[in-house]
Amino acid sequence: MHWTSRTYSSCVKDHCISPFPPPLSLATTILLSASMKKTDDDNKKVVAEIMARCFVPRLITTTSWEGFHFVGQEIRITEGMDCYGAVVWPSALVLCYFLETNVKHYNMVDKNVIEIGAGTGLVSIVASLLGAHVIATDLPELLGNLQYNISRNTKMKCKHLPQVKELSWGIALDENFPRSSNNFDYILAADVVYAHPFLEELLITFDHLCKETTVILWVMKFRLEKENNFVDRFKELFDLEEISSFPSLNIKLYKAMKKTRRSA
């Protein structure tokens, strides 16, 4: 007999089969447990490798900074503790690690890249060190520290000097980033979705900056239901693929591309 979902539902309704799957055998249970343990161990190993890229200065200096090792460089980042956007969050480390360790599949050399919500600039710095043409963007009040970090870590080290530009999500997009001149190969975003009231503007910004060939690499930490709702809204405009998951950090890394008329 060919079992369709309709046949199965009818049988369940008529009580001829149980609506619950049969219990797993002991051997299957052991195999699943071992697989889950291996996945969990692999996750913890990668997370440990990512976090090992951070270091603190041995000497106290007049300007406080955090250190990171990526692309064979020592990157020094000055943070601003009075603003969420001026702090290096774990999502940024995950994205930097991904860019560095996946250069064969996501080659940044000579690619046009824009980072939205660049914050301290760490992701933009790593993309620049990997050879990309980078535009790092954020709110006007964050640009001073962003420019400082990018300049001190890329000068005389990068193939292309990165730019820093203001970008307030959903505001003056046609004026500052006209669609006709948007030719981005990649959009990078780390931890841009959290408890702020501009999620719709963020979605509009993603859509405005994207062409059909643009690849979005987006890392997100899940904290509240708002994050799940945003992902659902995002899927209406973009084809979304989960590349990596880090359960111990509650972080996921996504690849997305704009939906074409055929796939919409």
Give a summary of the structure in a few sentences.
The chain has helices at residues 5-13, 26-51, 90-101, 122-129, 143-154, 173-176, 199-209, 225-237, and strands at residues 54-55, 66-70, 73-77, 112-116, 133-138, 163-166, 186-190, 215-221, 238-246, 251-258.
Write the SSE topology:
Blueprint: H1 5-13, H2 26-51, E1 54-55, E2 66-70, E3 73-77, H3 90-101, E4 112-116, H4 122-129, E5 133-138, H5 143-154, E6 163-166, H6 173-176, E7 186-190, H7 199-209, E8 215-221, H8 225-237, E9 238-246, E10 251-258
Parallel strand pairs: 4-5, 4-7, 5-6, 7-8
Antiparallel strand pairs: 1-2, 2-3, 8-10, 9-10
Helix pairs in contact: 3-4, 4-5, 7-8
| Strand order, largest beta sheet | 6-5-4-7-8-10-9
Query: Residue-averaged pLDDT, rounded?
Result: 82
Number of helices: 8
The helix/strand order is HHEEEHEHEHEHEHEHEE
* Structural classification: alpha/beta
Broad shape: globular
Low-confidence stretches: 1-24, 28-36
- Specify Rg, calculated over alpha carbons: 22 Å
Distance between the termini: 36 Å
Strand content: 15-25%
> What's the main sheet like?
7 strands, mixed
Helix content percent band: 25-40%
Count of distinct strands: 10
